[in-house]
Amino acid sequence: MSFKVCTCFLVFIGFIIFNPQTTLGAQEIPCFFSFGDSLVDNGNNNNLDTTSKANYRPYGIDFPDGPTGRFTNGRTIIDIVAQLLGFNDFIPPFATASGQEIIKGINYGSGGAGIRDETGKHRGDNLSFNKQMLNHRTTISRIASLIGNETSARKHLSKCLYSVMIGSNDYINNYYLPQNYNSSSKYTPDQYAAALIQQYLDQLMTLYNYGARKLVLFGLGPLGCIPTEISMFPTPTCVDSINDAVQLFNDRLKQLVEDLNTRLSQAKLIYINVSSIQFGAPASIGLQIFNQPCCQVSSTTGLCIPGQKPCITRALNLFWDDFHPCETLNLYTAARAYKKLLPWDAYPTDISHLVLES
């Protein structure tokens, strides 16, 4: 039975691999708003004063529109989720979205962004989660102007899906950079996770007060397994201490989802267990190169060197650069977030069931 389930699932994601501009049925929700970091960013950092940008080759080499600001070779997790939800077009970045298109959703993601405002600032400017919510407040006003008034706008927004994928930079571009930030000297890993979750709670309540009712909270992936962290520690595989710290955050985030579902009767929240999904991904989907980036990376930024040819084995590589996964892993993660393969992939349900909630 399990073999049949896995086979069907791989056929399902295989269909999306070879149809990057194809949607899978009718649009399931009227609008989709996404918040996050470089795993989400699709162009919001392009004109910021920062080294955290990806609007050049070889980024986007497998994306229909070429380099757009996405930190991968192809689509992001959010791009693929939008396709699975039936959207005909990718959700536009806040930086360039205009006119009627904002009614269907906005992507606010920003490379380097975190829950904490100072996170990632050693690389230059970014749009922290707090700044992204300020931008969303601007969007609400624009939508109100388009459809009549703020009451109508809030009614519309209550039917939308909201996803948040944030927190990775609070570790790799804050806590684990003691030369730039003092958070590791102020907090133990457990204290830091607690402080992050408390701030995250406040931010989510702001989003709720802006009208968000269906929220997808992505947990953090196994950050101790990304090439940049492996290179700084004497290990050929993963840095267990970093993954252990990340798990403290994820455990608290899952509990937060449970608490808010109890407290907020009008809201539905789900938690996506990214670490669990991605730990089992390489062997199950044929990835063979686990700890080396596909593109040639800069020794100072860990991002792809402009104009250099990437590897030709992109479908076999876990990582695109020193931080970000190739499209294949994004595809696998998005598919299991949308429709869980294992019971612990998503809690208490997955995206496909969340969008059906009244």
TrEMBL record:
Residues 1-25 form the signal peptide. The keyword Lipid metabolism applies. InterPro entries: GDSL, GDSL_esterase/lipase, SGNH_hydro_sf, SGNH_plant_lipase-like. It comes from Coffea arabica. Belongs to the 'GDSL' lipolytic enzyme family. This is GDSL esterase/lipase At1g29670-like isoform X1. Keywords: Hydrolase, Lipid degradation, Lipid metabolism, Secreted, Signal. It is found in: Secreted. It comes from the Eukaryota.
